[in-house]
Amino acid sequence: MKILEDRKINDGQIGKGNVLKVDSFLNHQIDTGFISELGKEFYRLFKGENITKILTIEASGIGVACLTAQYFNVPVVFAKKAPTVNIYADIYTAKVNSFTHKKEYEIYVSKQFINKDDNILIIDDFLAKGSALSALISLINDAGAKTVGAGIVIEKAFQEGGKIIRDMNVRVESLARIKEMSEEKGVVFCS
Amino acid sequence: MKILEDRKINDGQIGKGNVLKVDSFLNHQIDTGFISELGKEFYRLFKGENITKILTIEASGIGVACLTAQYFNVPVVFAKKAPTVNIYADIYTAKVNSFTHKKEYEIYVSKQFINKDDNILIIDDFLAKGSALSALISLINDAGAKTVGAGIVIEKAFQEGGKIIRDMNVRVESLARIKEMSEEKGVVFCS
After folding, report:
1. Measured in Å, how far apart are chain B's first and last C-alpha atoms?
2. Cis amide linkage into residue B59, ω under 30° from 0
3. In a 10 Å sphere around its CB, with 0-12 CB exposed, 13-18 middle and 19+ buried, how is residue B189 labelled?
4. Residue A20 maps to a domain
């Protein structure tokens, strides 16, 4: 999506250790007007799919998910994180490996909020190694619901997550796909 | 706010240990259409105040904050939580006592996202003992910005937070104020 590439992700946004700094509009400060434009684009891409619910993961997915959900007129469910989740009968759980934070954690969703009739669109801010997205898909599968697709703001296409998820026959739509990035070369997008 | 009292907070929503269950629309599943109506009400209450930014705290404040920010056409900043925050020069920090989770944690905001010219509206889902709200006000004070007020979805008026914050001369607008609640009596609102 050109406005995302032009206005928000640029060479000045690469910090130390090749971390993309999107704190100013996406995951600390949220530029709600701009993110709402991204939500409109997700709606254009998935509006024919009879979406009944949007699923995301706390915390930085929630803003994008809510601002997208308004176009679909559906609720958002956000998976919660916990270091360990006791085995309750009324939740679905899945494991996530966070490479950024170098730890494993569990996510969970209450069973009452996903059911077998749901057509679910997953929305998240980043796709890199795909661990969080795989975990969300696993929750949906456990509920017997359908994963219609995943709407991602920024995909680090130089990492394997996109391929892993697409190989599961899940439609992935990323608004910006980064081919490579470094302090020297800046941000290079997939053409 | 009558629609909140009538449609969403009712006697069936009191769980074990007198916990108000608002998972179905506010802090696990987010009923985005309904929450957007609450956002409109916050806008009606604070629109004359020249708000430049909305501040909230992860995770369950983010949805309400984003859906409110659209009416004001301002960005949202959400304070992040961490068990301990190293002393960085570029963040403001404050301590929060969570009575629900029986632990103390720190919240932080990057200095670049609050500055002395900001007129800040705080938005949060709950006000009970007031610890999170006090911490957010402290971050705003540290930045030399102005706290215009706090918009709260549900205030547990039988706890002391509302009085503490109002005694600091901060305007608090709660859309529902609960006077008392129990499995026996149900939910009783302040008149």
Report:
1. 11
2. yes
3. middle
4. no
B185 domain residue, yes or no: no
**Structure confidence at residue B12 as a pLDDT band (50, 70, 90):** low
Residue A4 lies in a domain: no
Structural domain span for residue B135: 2-176
Kindly state the average pLDDT of the residues B61-78: 98
Q: Does B112 contact A at CB distance below 8 Å?
A: yes
> The domain that contains A109 carries what CATH number?
3.40.50.2020
Q: Which residue ranges in chain A fall short of pLDDT 70? A: 11-12, 83-88, 100
Chain B touched by A115 (CB under 8 Å): no
Give the number of residues written for chain A: 191
Give the pLDDT mean for B21-30: 92
A45 touches chain B (CB under 8 A): no
* Among A88, A138, A86, A96, CA closest to A114: A138
Taking an 8 Å cut-off on Cβ atoms, the answer to whether A58 and B63 are in contact is no
- Decide if B188 is inside a domain: no
pTM: 0.94
ipTM over 0.90: yes
* Dist CA A183 CA A16 (whole Å): 8
Number of domains observed in the structure of chain B = 1
